[in-house]
Amino acid sequence: MNVMLTVLLAVQMLSAVVMIGLILVQHGKGADMGAAFGSGGAGSLFGASGSSNFLSRTTAVLATVFFVSTLALAYFNSARPEPSAGGSVLENAALVAPASAPVAPAASASGAAQIPSK
User: d(Cα 27, Cα 39) in Å, to the nearest integer?
Assistant: First the structure.
């Protein structure tokens, strides 16, 4: 089960990073007007209009992979048994704290007790 969660998390992270890169590479709506009047674009790798179709379709596929992996991670995480029933995340974190964590000193070492008197 842990291997599957790790693979799903890796797929989600990879699809998010690649999707961010593809979105940053794409041209906005205003760039199409300049290409219509011949300001470049025809000499690009995909042709005058081929890059928008390829990049937008690839972005849509990656977005679908991202959403599916997110839903799968949420489903498999909810299927795992919880350490305690109910309560907030902070209350559950206090119950699961590691034993090697340093314990805070008692109230005698508070900020007011450490101020020297004149």
Answer: 14
Copy the structure tokens of residue 27. 């041209």
Q: How far is CA 29 from CA 21, 26, 99, in A?
A: 18, 10, 57
Non-local (6+) Cβ contacts of 73 within 8 A are: 5, 8, 9, 12
Task: Give the separation between CA 103 and CA 25, rounded to whole angstroms.
Answer: 50
- Alpha-carbon span 41 to 55, nearest angstrom: 14
Q: What is the pLDDT of residues 21-54, one digit of tens each?
A: 999 988 777 665 665 666 555 445 555 555 568 8
Tokens of 2: 């842990």
The C-alpha atoms of residue 83 and residue 80 are separated, in whole angstroms, by 10
pLDDT of residue 61: 94
Give the global pTM.
Answer: 0.54
DSSP classification of residue 112 = T
